[in-house]
Specification:
With about 210 residues, this protein is an alpha+beta fold. The chain folds into two domains: about 5-135, no CATH class; about 135-210, ACT domain (Alpha-Beta Plaits, 2-Layer Sandwich), CATH 3.30.70. It has seven helices and six strands. Strands 4-5-3-6 form a four-stranded antiparallel β-sheet. Strands 1-2 form a two-stranded antiparallel sheet. It comes from Niastella vici.
């Protein structure tokens, strides 16, 4: 492998990582421009070293461990939020970026560039689809605190039904004269917003979290 070929591979790896990283950076994701550039470059380097160092015995020995190692990096961007697990798409993007870097290092630059275009297209196209799905059905967690009395929350559950929200009560707490309950409710964004506006004007409610 001559010097010019090595330089071209490294530049292509940086370019691919930069394109994907710029898309993630634009959407304010945890793994951004520099991170994905380094992942793609590192994967290309490890693959080239593996092919050179292990050329006589096992040329894939070093490169094969990229798949395992990159899993730890991807796992670091996944976290639990209030309504679910976040960062899975970014973790998958890291995984695919490493694969593209390996492709560049192995000499499949055109396949890697094509994969980069497909990846960016998927990230952008499916973001629009996910936004549309989120408008017609999304999950909200509501916590209502008000003075305690018999059947205290039946009124609000009836209200959720009126606004076409399907719900599940997950937690109840009584503290002296007040009573709190939490619901996980599903429905369209329009129905959630209508329910929230109604609840913000409820005089009996002491605390409303949404």
């Amino acid at each position: 492998m001559d010097t010019l070929e090595i330089i071209i591979k490294l530049l292509i790896a940086v370019l691919i990582g930069g394109i994907i990283g710029a898309e993630r950076e634009y959407h304010n994701k945890s793994a951004g421009l520099r991170t994905l550039m380094l992942i793609c470059l590192g994967s290309a380097l490890f693959t080239m070293f593996s092919m050179e160092i292990g050329s006589r015995t096992s040329p894939d020995r070093i490169a094969s461990n990229i798949v395992t190692g990159i899993g730890f990096v991807g796992g670091g961007v996944i976290f639990m939020g209030g309504t679910g697990i976040y960062g899975v798409t970014t973790a998958a993007t890291i995984w695919v970026t490493a694969a593209l870097g390996m492709g560049v290092g192995a000499g499949h630059q055109y396949i890697a560039l094509g994969g980069c275009i497909v990846l960016v297209g998927v990230l952008n196209a499916f973001t629009a689809i996910e936004d549309w799905i989120d408008k017609i059905n999304r999950l909200h967690t509501y916590k209502i605190t008000c003075p305690y009395h018999d059947q205290v929350f039946e009124k609000y559950e009836t209200l959720m039904k009126q606004y076409h929200l399907s719900f599940r009560k997950s937690k109840q707490t009584r503290n002296h004269t007040t009573f709190s309950a939490t619901w996980d409710a599903e429905g369209s964004m329009k129905n959630h917003n209508a329910f929230i506006r109604h609840m913000l004007n409820e005089q009996e409610v002491e605390r409303f979290e949404y």
